[in-house]
């Protein structure tokens, strides 16, 4: 770093691009990076420490590792290229590689809405739950401000009133002794907003009543003498104080269980190995629709790519015909729709397919006298999805083909014209063979993007109509990626299963990407 | 043209024109229809008899909230539209993400384009392959990471814009690295080599030469990235659940659902949706048109330089 800034001072005036650096600029160049580096270091360490203190040691360790690698890279003046690379690689590994690894680890767990918590959080939850033993008392609670301090006022069903000593707003620790009083006026008591604000302190308050029992907060305006429901034994088992059953954590099912095997909510996330993948492929209610979704995803992507490529190529061939007038205007008009964001275009077309009000049915009604229900029957919905998808993709394909056709040397066409070849021969013998090599990796990329086009499905059909023979929310127009999305978000919270599908998709995408990479690097036409 | 043209060619030309017009009609019709719906009044019994519909700015004004969301016939809007809130949320997320992604991507892209380092070929391949990777597949991971980190840092928990920004940053950065890399490679190498011969370090060459030369392209890319992020549909749908955090795509999506899911929309909703979609896509369209013009100029400029 010092190397760089000294060189700035020494060599900058010679560059000729910026003739003179003012003095403040030199100082800024010298100290700016150091200040930024120091600030980043402090922030990084702070984040790591705070995460660690909150018990999230994994994320804390990752933050610490980032700080260490950053220090290593920027202290080592020799590895200059890595100073350049670090920010981008950091973003890629933190926000892409790490989530990939995290998804893989989630796919081997039973993480879902029932098993959302970590083991320690679930234990903590159970240990803080309370019950009302025989003879426990309930009290109405009011908080009486007295200057900047407070008194707690309790009143039981019999009308007996108890009042505490004054205590400071941040009071923690010792139990407060309650004294029996004849009455304490309620006017001037703290309102609900104040109670909600100080609920954290009030929850920790222990009020010692004259009869020896201790009351704790149970809701915003009531205290009771309930007891903790569970106590923890040394071996980690929880004893239910009410019926004396013993709960043991079952790290296979992700629940605390009684000796008879009854599960006690909340569950916690545990590793289940390959169970999610096995479930996906063998579970009766799941494997059938899953395989159908897989087939539909393949069919949809292949159809979209092939049809839009065919349409795009045909148009591009026509548009690159030299003798055609207004070619530039046409190209511009074809390019125009790309200005509208894809998501909005999808919604616009969706409205056009509505059964009663859509333009498509208005046309079909006048011409053929039919009003098909585009969103109800599986065949029609799938047709609509393919139509919309081709409609979205073929202008891009056309632009791509136009560029590639322009790169073909015109001499070839001149030679073929001399030989008396027609446009069809030109197309099959010159255009198509010369376009095939460079377009293939692009088509694979397009296939990969349609394959994972959850956005289109989510906004166009939402995956509907649904399969009826499955518990999980799977629809007949769902792609694999939108199935994963629905399982995790819109239709349920089965994150483990969604992660398993995502991992399968990672593998498919990786294979496609690798194939495209090999084709690109071999043909050498792109890049 | 003085050229003699065969009858066959004339016919071919005509067929080609007709084919192109048909394709154009197919592509442009939905957008034309949206424009039309947005500025015409609802068809009621009295107006259907007239040939020419009545034009009105009511739908647009209602979407913008400049007119009460109750129309002249006493009908409410089909669904709640909080256009400015959605727009503000979208712009906020897009601008912050773009700023972070651009600042992280610039130096990295320069290194990929110009500097030598061990493992460059494999990293280059990984960068290429990362383009196949759709961000939506990471939604589950993002959600659970932010759900857990949100306990410690509420600003990047689930249903916050902070979380969404971080989730979008990864893909955005990789995309920008790829785009900038391509542009840095196109810059004339001679100037940079001259600077190096004068003793400039990597950082000086980058800061004083490559960056100013690439500035027009950077501006174009930044604008395009920002507008594409404004309409990011999936990660925002996964991470944003509340009604006051909704961005444009989520708000509009909920509007179509509320206005008639399952294919049974009312014509009222159609006009209002068209107006909302028109206004929502305006930033994207404006940026697109502006950047197309700049792109031509800046490409021409770099060739001259």
Keywords:
heterodimer, A: 527 residues, alpha+beta, Methane Monooxygenase Hydroxylase, Chain G, domain 1, Periplasmic binding protein-like II, seven-stranded mixed barrel, five-stranded antiparallel β-sheet, 18 helices, elongated, disordered N terminus, B: 305 residues, mainly alpha, MetI-like fold, 12 helices, 72% helix, disordered C terminus
Give the structure's gist in a few sentences.
The complex is a heterodimer of chains A (527) and B (305). In chain A, 56% of the residues lie in helices and 11% in strands. Chain A is of the alpha+beta class.
Structural features, described:
The complex is a heterodimer of chains A (527) and B (305). Chain A is α+β, with helices and mostly antiparallel strands and 527 residues long. Chain A folds into 4 domains: 2-107, Up-down Bundle (Methane Monooxygenase Hydroxylase, Chain G, domain 1); 119-125 and 230-264, no CATH class; 130-228, Beta Barrel (Periplasmic binding protein-like II), CATH 2.40.430.10; 279-523, MetI-like fold (Orthogonal Bundle), CATH 1.10.3720. Helices cover 56% and strands 11% of the residues of chain A. In chain A, helix 9 runs parallel beside helix 13 (378-406), helix 9 (284-319) packs antiparallel against helix 15 and helix 11 (342-352) runs parallel beside helix 16. Chain B has helices at residues 7-39, 45-48, 58-64, 83-114, 120-130, 139-149, 161-186, 189-197, 202-230, 234-239, 248-260, 267-304. Chain B has 305 residues and is an all-alpha fold. Mean pLDDT of chain B is 81; it is low at 299-305. At the A-B interface, helix 1, helix 2, helix 4, helix 9 and helix 10 of A face helix 1, helix 4, helix 5, helix 6 and helix 7 of B.
